[in-house]
Amino acid sequence: MVLTLINIFRLKCPVCCKGEFLESRPRLFFKIIRVRNRCSNCQTRLKIEPSFYYGSMYVAYALGVGLMMFTTFIYWSLSSSFSVLYCFLWIVGILLVLNAYLNAWSKAIWASFFFKKNLY
User: Fold this and answer.
1) How far apart are CA 37 and CA 30, in angstroms?
2) Domain count for the chain
3) Fewest Cβ atoms closer than 10 Å to its Cβ: which of 48, 58, 80, 95?
4) Cβ(19)–Cβ(41) under 8 Å?
């Protein structure tokens, strides 16, 4: 389980845990995240069908909501007077900066649900 989480965070192949999962590394702000057709190490087909990674939108939504709740909690615990407007601006700023990473991680999480890990 811990190895799976590390591989998701590092964006490695969900099968061999060594090859790259994405065509290019995510950058800050907006960038289209493309999954490789095949793993560079084990040659596993990572694109099972054309719309396979649309389901990762649900995972991205869950990650975004979790990040919003975490940001709200941190802002609430560190500020002397809670302002909804400033909290909202912090949330929007953090989500804009981490957007590419959230989308990449959500695709890696989605793929880890469906690909069987090769332990050899």
Assistant:
1) 22
2) 1
3) 80
4) yes
Question: Is residue 119 a part of any domain in this protein?
Answer: no
Q: How many angstroms separate the first and last alpha carbons of the chain?
A: 16
Domain that holds residue 22: 2-114
- Tokens found for residue 29: 């702000």
Residues 6+ apart with CB under 8 A from 60: 102, 103, 106
Distance CA 68, CA 30 (A): 18
Kindly report the pTM of this predicted structure: 0.84
> Letter for the amino acid at 85?
L
Contact indicator for 70, 35 with CB cutoff of 8 Å: no
Say how far apart CA 60 and CA 37 lie, in whole Å.
21
Asked whether residue 21 is domain-assigned, the answer is yes
Q: What is the dihedral of CA 42, 46, 49, 50, to 10 degrees?
A: -130
